[in-house]
């Protein structure tokens, strides 16, 4: 007896199994998209979303053993996806006060003026007075760039902030974040959908860094000096400004997988080498260490990270005018 009919049956079962798995994944995504992006805040989602899932399950059972059920489920997913792709980001919403303004820059040769640089006056994490300033920088004075990593909870997730040094003691920090509306809080799951707009927060380090070290609880922040040349730092800084001006006029959706704080840094810095730690960015500091991108002082990575921890120094510095100097003192590369 020829073995081919048996192999065909096995291949058919395996193929159908993969098709069913794909349908389950697509249906799960469609239900989440409806829940977060169409019916967010509406009581209808508690009926509509389960109803969609039940309808797809009923379709598969009604056409059990036939491809028609799978085809109908995929067609339903395509309809949801087509609707989802029509959702447009906006700059016109009821924003939380700390993201109410978007930065923008004017460039004239080496002279750069950045508007809406944030420097909030914090009393607690949630009690603050927003302040927006206009600051000017001379690109010929750019010295290099540093990177902060803030960890909370999972060791696999962190928030990076790039800070550019001008002259001896002047720094401007760039934090790529979700732009939250009044009443919204960050959700890692919602970050995979069209729920948050993207914002580039340009700020004083006494704002965006001190917020994480001195006012938020459960967050640990680490500071590393990169070996970027002044030329590389300048090019990266200008890439930031171009992106900041672009999204001010053409807002973008934040996406936890494709358009987030780390993927944008890699793109703006011209990083050609892909690494899984760009996504699981809690390990991005180790990635930079292994690539030779950090000033190490001949320390092992464990030793470097231990001395890079700045929470205690930041709390001791408080709102001092030389906050940036205080958190760098005695650390590798500074």
Strand and helix map with partners:
Blueprint: H1 4-38, H2 45-62, H3 67-84, E1 104-108, E2 111-118, E3 121-122, E4 128-129, E5 132-138, E6 142-151, E7 158-166, E8 170-179, E9 197-203, H4 205-208, H5 210-215, E10 220-225, H6 230-249, H7 261-268, H8 284-290, H9 301-308, H10 311-317, H11 323-328
Antiparallel strand pairs: 1-2, 2-5, 3-4, 6-7, 6-10, 7-8, 8-9
Description of the structure:
With about 325 residues, this protein is α+β, with helices and mostly antiparallel strands. The chain folds into two domains: about 5-85; about 95-330, no CATH class. Helices cover about 40% and strands about 20% of the residues. β6 and β7 form a beta hairpin.
Considering the chains and any ligands shown, give keywords for the structure.
334 residues; alpha+beta; 2 domains; 5-stranded antiparallel sheet; 3-stranded antiparallel sheet; 41% helix; 20% strand
